[in-house]
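Retro notes, item 3 of 5
We never archived the inputs for the nicotinamide-adenine-dinucleotide complex last cycle. Fixing that now. Sequence and ligand:
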Amino acid sequence: MKKHIAVIRGDGIGPEIVNEAIKVLDAVAEKYGHTFEYEDAYMGGCAIDKFGDPLPESELKKCVESDSVLLGAVGGKKWDSVPGNMRPEKGLLRLRAGMGVYSNNRPAKIWPQLASASPLKPETVAKGIDFIIVRELIGGIYFGEHKTYEDGEKISEDVMKYSESEIERIGRIGFETARRRRKKLCSVEKSNVLDTSRLWKSVMHRLADEYPDVELSDMLVDNCAMQIVKDPSQFDVIVTENMFGDILSDEASMITGSIGMIPSSSLGKTSCGLYEPIHGSAPDIAGQDIANPIGTILSAAMMLRYSFDMPREADDIEEAVGKVLGEGWRTGDIMSAEEGLKRAKCSEMGTLIAKAVKAI
Ligand code: NAD
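Structure as it came back at the time:
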């Protein structure tokens, strides 16, 4: 298969970690006879330096016209003093809006080799943590009307609004994601209090008729926050609205240990997605070849699974990461005092995983 990938290396450690993800994608291409073509696109600080704009139209066009976008990270002190609408992060928001990606998908997976890094009890971790949160990204209270006014005292309002169609499109991503995994979908809301949540729940149940192979359950958001720390092994896919997803996905990433390990995808109406690790540009370690590239490599695996329909290839990358960790290789952020561990540079980690992909 031939795929055209727009590559935004970005700032700080971005170029280093993206190089390693490309190394691993090339290993997959060689093994399975695929062709991955890469086209550099500029967004963030590097785009400000090159074009005076964090996301020029020409660069957005490259992304929208690609089969998917692989992103490192953007931002850094150098651009902290530029005006608000010219900041690197504005480029990222414009990219998400321009690509129309309304669904943010963030897996929470613990690698048994890194279990000691989790703040949860060992017996809870031993049951396994491997779920995805599908979060609605461009609706709800963050996008409703916000106002503050005087009426004898200051009063503020933030409007939470969802239409059936907005819920349906994210609901479908939840069901489709579950269908590609263990076929369990948990819809999280606050239907004991909120109208938007009651509508949410009714749309999810209507959609369930179309996905008889997926088991749908409902959970109130406060209970879900507890269950994620009490027994995360019960979850496969969680689908929820913007604010609940924002909070739950940060909670979920914490229980797995290191920020350098976690990938994400953002998808919209088409299969063209945006794939990036959840961390930032880590300027404190940039240019030293010591960053952990695994979050970016696993983002590339998500691209293969969710945008290119290449589940075997994605499985290979995930298995290769497990194998390399199992052999004791660690970048600095996941190093511990455990016996037998070997320190790998960012570039070595990419090479080891690429080799392991070919060997599987
Ligand atoms: P950060 O995620 O970049 O770094 C936080 C800490 O984690 C740092 O100590 C860093 O060294 C470490 N870290 C992060 N990724 C790592 C990796 N792959 N390997 C090893 N260690 C890693 O967050 P920050 O320091 O708050 O932000 C730095 C810059 O990144 C800021 O300009 C911020 O705006 C930007 N940012 C960008 C994105 C994005 O591009 N999506 C997301 C968050 C922050």
